[in-house]
Design a protein that fits this description.
Helices cover 59% and strands 11% of the residues. The chain is α/β, with parallel strands linked by helices. The radius of gyration is 36 Å and the shape is elongated.
Length: 292
């Protein structure tokens, strides 16, 4: 079943590109026509590319790895933050901190700094500080939360990046490419689709267009996570069944051993009775012959 259709993309305004004079020639294969000085994106290609990107992002989520969503432009940040939070993926909607990927250990230290400040608030350390020191630390915590709070759970480099507007987020794209991290992105007519691995030709300025694309990709993430959960449950059930089968086999083996032991004891007892009976008969015969 297709994740979207031509009419849905059309209604969201995904087909509207930039002015002709602002276009990037590398986008020529994805442009359908030009009308009133504005390039119109070929929605059939958008549909195909979106399906490819959704399939890729689903497999990444299914493998248990993280996808980092990046959207710092005004009309995209709230949409991305709200939707991506629902699928428990990291995101950046404030200014991209330079070196976030290429200097990841330093970013992790800043995230740990937030945790240490939270610990100070609970273990009573705050009570021994002056009012000014408390204010400075609180402001520092708020600043870190605003910049890095959404990636607090990102303990290692993400498996992929999804970017809204690669022209604006060129630093994030460059860092990802430098580290070999695949990039999925909404690419408008003023951008170069060759710098990303999974370009989705689409209007990256309209909130409706952004919302539709992000929602489709987040649904793909949910599908991947659900499949992962189902596979884990099946694996757990399989282990439980195998364990139960092993227990039953062991019990059967024990019962078999016990039966064999009982049969062996019965045979020995029967042999012993026969021997004693034989000895008794011999004694009787001997007494009888002796009396004669």
């Amino acid at each position: 079943m297709p994740r979207t259709n031509f009419n849905e993309l059309l209604d969201a305004g995904v087909h509207f590109g930039h002015l002709k004079r602002k276009w990037n020639p590398a986008m020529a294969p994805y442009i359908f026509m030009e009308r009133n000085g504005i390039h119109i994106i070929d929605l059939e290609q958008t549909e195909q590319k979106l399906e490819q990107a959704a399939s890729a992002i689903k497999q990444i989520a299914k493998s248990g790895r993280k996808i980092l969503f990046v959207a710092t432009k005004k009309q995209a940040k709230d949409i991305v933050a709200e939707r991506v939070k629902q699928v428990n993926m990291p995101y950046v909607t404030e200014r991209w901190p330079g070196g976030m990927l290429t200097n990841f250990p330093t970013i992790r230290k800043a995230v740990k700094k937030m945790s240490s400040i939270d610990k100070m608030a609970t273990d009573g350390t705050f009570d021994n500080l002056s009012k000014r020191e408390k204010l400075q630390i609180t402001r520092q915590r708020a600043k870190l939360e605003k910049m890095l709070g959404s990636i607090a759970d990102l303990t290692r480099l993400p498996a992929a990046l999804f970017v809204v507007d690669i022209t604006k987020e060129y630093i994030a794209v460059r860092e990802a490419k430098k580290l070999g991290i695949p990039v999925l992105a909404m690419v408008d007519t003023n951008s170069d689709p060759n710098v990303v691995d999974f370009p989705i030709p689409a209007n990256d300025d309209a909130s409706k267009s952004i919302s539709l694309i992000v929602n489709i990709l987040c649904k793909a993430v949910e599908e991947g996570l659900n499949e992962r959960k189902t596979e884990k449950e099946k694996e757990a059930d399989g282990k439980e069944k195998r364990a139960s089968k092993d227990v039953k086999a062991t019990a059967k083996k024990v019962r078999s051993v016990k039966v064999d032991d009982i049969e062996e004891e019965e045979e020995e007892l029967e042999e012993e009775v026969k021997v004693k009976h034989q000895q008794k008969m011999e004694e009787l015969y001997k007494e009888e012959f002796d009396d004669e």
